[in-house]
Amino acid sequence: MKYRSAFDIIGPVMIGPSSSHTAGAARIGRVARNLFEKQPKRVVISLYGSFAKTYKGHGTDLALVAGLLDFDTFDERIRDSLAIAEKAGMEVVFRPEEAVPDHPNTVKLKLYDDDSEMEVVGISIGGGTIEIKEINSFQLKLSGDPAILVFHQDRFGVISFVTSVLSKYEINIGHMEVARKEKGETAIMIIEVDQRIDEDVLEELRKLSNVNRVIKIVD
Amino acid sequence: MFRNVAELVSLAEQKQVKIAEIMIQQEVEVTGLSREDIIAKMDNNLQVMEQAVERGLQGVKSQTGLTGGDAVLLQNYIKSGKALSGPLLLDAVSKAMATNEVNAAMGVICATPTAGSAGVVPGTLFAVKEQLNPTRQDMIEYLFTAAAFGFVIANNATVAGAAGGCQAEVGSAAGMAAASIVEMAGGTPKQAAEAMAISLKNMLGLVCDPVAGLVEVPCVKRNAMGASNALTAADMALAGITSRIPADEVIAAMYAIGQTMPSSLRETGEGGLAATPTGRRLEAEIFGQPKPKLKDYLV
């Protein structure tokens, strides 16, 4: 089921005018920033479908940038996010694209700073609910609920080491997905969990062999 | 977990509780949060809705100037005593518009189920409140009942205008509100489902054609009509009228209709009212770049 909670329907509390094009966009921007783990210096935002046609009217541009600045959907600073980003030294480029996407509300964000870059594709499926469909060309499905992302080498045993650590801390896995581009290369684990994840759990995961990067996504 | 309206109604009948209670119990199960936390969270959403209506009734204007002030005009008209369609109905219409005028002005609202359709559920709630005198708990339950039906619609169809047109947004909101009104007025779970079906049936085919792509014209007035539709459907169901087509099949029909809608009528600002000469003129005035006109009349 795409929607799991009553608050997916009655909510979010948000700055208007559109739950999919404003609040959903802010959430996608915020998850992207979360994944990047810092404020990017430059972001290239490609908009598709309805996003490309109506982003100015819906404040989709303001909301995406607000999310990249780590603002919530009801933050009144959304209205001034472009100016705030400029002051904060974040350069943003918008590209309305002609290509027809699978979902009408699709956005691709390319985040850069001096030594790293990341590409995130998200869709806004209605009522402020979002899905992340791609991270660095890995096809996946991430709802924006609390989760851990583990980038690792595609070797035997890595999944079991990771889940052992979670089990040690009595963390239950609600949903788990593994994706890779090529056999034996970099792979990614998406683990949605029921409990709070403390920093020491992440640190222990980071120390595991063949684990390259661990990111926590918070609600 | 209930998957459709039939299961939702039968759960409520088996346990002999309101639809709202089924939604609350499921929320406890799914999130692991306590009942108190969940009620408090919905109370917070209720407060946001109250504040949005209050703000809208004081009169707001959107940045473009396309919308704002109509909620106030209608309240003044109700006060004049000349209203033909009844003060409760018009109060709901006015409060629905108040919410969406605040939304268009980039104010704070609670999406129900979406921002573009955020007026219908609170608009009807704060109007029937005047007659039914509900407790705070009853008002919170009104929102959980709406959530239960919205949950079924969102999971079996869509609530996004870009995916299913306005029938998926204001149509869903009207169906949700109709069911909540019935339950608050003391109707049965079955009657709530009938009201949802009657209401949504009469929103089928409604396109999403916002002028200049903005959630203003015709969105504010579509919320007005959604509120009026919801109240009428609720009264019909409470009178014992049933829908010949069951609620779940109405939802399926809404989804199927949405999928066959051309993209120009699904929140792209390309067809329908957006493509009228006035719609195009307003767009040019706001964004200063008129779009090609040739295909406007072909959509």
UniProtKB/TrEMBL annotation, chain A:
Keywords on record: 4Fe-4S, Gluconeogenesis, Iron, Iron-sulfur, Lyase, Metal-binding
Q: Which GO terms describe its biological process?
A: gluconeogenesis
Iron-sulfur among keywords:
yes
Q: Residue ranges of the ACT domain?
A: 147-219
Which Pfam families does the UniProt entry name for this protein? ACT, SDH_beta
Name the cofactor(s) required for activity, per the record. Answer: [4Fe-4S] cluster
Q: Which reaction does it catalyse?
A: L-serine = pyruvate + NH4(+)
Which molecular-function annotations from GO does this UniProt entry contain?
Answer: 4 iron, 4 sulfur cluster binding; L-serine ammonia-lyase activity; metal ion binding
Annotated Gene3D superfamilies = 3.30.70.260, D-3-phosphoglycerate dehydrogenase, domain 3
The record's SUPFAM superfamilies line, in alphabetical order, gives: ACT-like (SSF55021), Serine metabolism enzymes domain (SSF143548)
Pathway(s) of this molecule:
Carbohydrate biosynthesis; gluconeogenesis
Give yes or no: UniProt keyword Cell inner membrane.
no
Q: Which family does it belong to?
A: Belongs to the iron-sulfur dependent L-serine dehydratase family.
Please state what the protein is called: L-serine deaminase
Per the UniProt record, the source organism is Mesobacillus campisalis
Which taxonomic lineage does the organism of this UniProt entry have?
Bacteria, Bacillati, Bacillota, Bacilli, Bacillales
UniProtKB/TrEMBL annotation, chain B:
Required co-factor?
Answer: [4Fe-4S] cluster
Identify one Pfam family in the record: SDH_alpha
Q: Which EC number applies?
A: 4.3.1.17
Would the keyword Metal-binding turn up in this protein's UniProt record?
yes
Alphabetically sorted, this entry's keywords are: 4Fe-4S, Gluconeogenesis, Iron, Iron-sulfur, Lyase, Metal-binding
Q: What class of enzyme is it?
A: lyase
The GO terms describing molecular function are: 4 iron, 4 sulfur cluster binding; L-serine ammonia-lyase activity; metal ion binding
Q: In which pathway does it act?
A: Carbohydrate biosynthesis; gluconeogenesis
Reactions listed under catalytic activity:
L-serine = pyruvate + NH4(+)
- Alphabetical GO biological process terms: gluconeogenesis
Q: Which part of the chain is the Serine dehydratase-like alpha subunit domain?
A: 15-274
Residue ranges annotated as coiled coil are none
Indicate the family of this protein.
Belongs to the iron-sulfur dependent L-serine dehydratase family.
Q: What is this protein called?
A: L-serine dehydratase
The protein's organism comes out as Mesobacillus campisalis
